[in-house]
């Protein structure tokens, strides 16, 4: 008698295009090194950029395009809401910081309980950009979307700007030697 198969966990990764960049590289590594019972769906918000498409397909991910148009935000939110209701993922990882609020809202409206955003850059230096990022943090707290920073330095820059959502933290990387050593 064979052991029963583990249930499949579905993770939706939200990317703003499939260019050769940091978000896409991180996402591809997560897909490639995930447990075998995990199912990965890539929601591409910029279908005109398909540079890494074959790499994601070779890794076993399902690719879905749903273009984001800034002037039609509510239409995009509705489109993503329907997508999340159809897919019923166990978790959503949103890589484009800023857009995570709109995508996260759609996921919450669809009843998804595990939603996380990724921050890949430290807070900008200029005052206007800092105000915008402070508002992004405030809205992330209100929507309860944790932010996982790409390094301790990025996490600290966000923490200095304001309160972070519960569950936020840093993903140790090559820059975070002390965190990796622990």
Can you offer a commentary on this structure?
The chain is of the alpha/beta class and 182 residues long. It is built from 7 helices and 7 strands; from the N terminus they run βαβαβαβαβαβαβα. Strands 3-2-1-4-5-6-7 form a 7-stranded parallel β-sheet, sandwiched between helices. α4 links the parallel β4 and β5 (115-119). α3 crosses α4 (100-109) and α4 (100-109) packs parallel to α5 (127-143). The mean pLDDT is 91.
List the helices and strands and how they pair.
Layout: E1 9-15, H1 22-32, E2 38-44, H2 53-58, E3 62-65, H3 73-87, E4 91-94, H4 100-109, E5 115-119, H5 127-143, E6 147-149, H6 152-161, E7 169-170, H7 177-181
Parallel strand pairs: 1-2, 1-4, 2-3, 4-5, 5-6, 6-7
Helix pairs in contact: 3-4, 4-5
Keywords:
182 residues, 7 strands, single chain, alpha/beta, seven-stranded parallel β-sheet
Write out the strand line-up for the largest beta sheet, numbering strands in chain order.
3-2-1-4-5-6-7
SSE-based structural type: alpha/beta
Describe the largest sheet: 7 strands, parallel
What number is the mean pLDDT? 91
Low-confidence blocks of residues: none
| SS strand fraction | 15-25%
């Amino acid at each position: 008698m064979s052991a029963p198969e583990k249930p499949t966990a579905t993770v939706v990764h939200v990317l703003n295009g499939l260019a050769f960049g940091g978000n896409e590289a991180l996402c591809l590594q997560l897909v490639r090194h995930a447990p075998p019972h995990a199912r990965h769906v890539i929601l591409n918000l910029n279908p005109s950029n398909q540079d890494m498409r074959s790499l994601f397909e070779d890794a076993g991910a399902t690719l879905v395009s749903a273009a984001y148009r800034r002037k039609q935000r509510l239409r995009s939110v509705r489109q993503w809401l329907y997508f999340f209701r159809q897919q019923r993922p166990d978790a959503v990882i949103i890589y484009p910081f800023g857009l995570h609020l709109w995508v996260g809202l759609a996921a919450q409206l669809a009843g998804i309980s595990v939603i996380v955003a990724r921050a890949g850059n430290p807070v900008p230096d200029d005052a206007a950009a800092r105000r915008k990022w402070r508002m992004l943090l405030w809205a992330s707290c209100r929507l309860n979307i944790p932010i996982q920073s790409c390094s301790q330095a990025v996490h600290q820059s966000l923490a200095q700007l304001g309160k972070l959502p519960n569950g936020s933290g840093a993903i140790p990387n090559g820059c975070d030697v002390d965190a990796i050593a622990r």
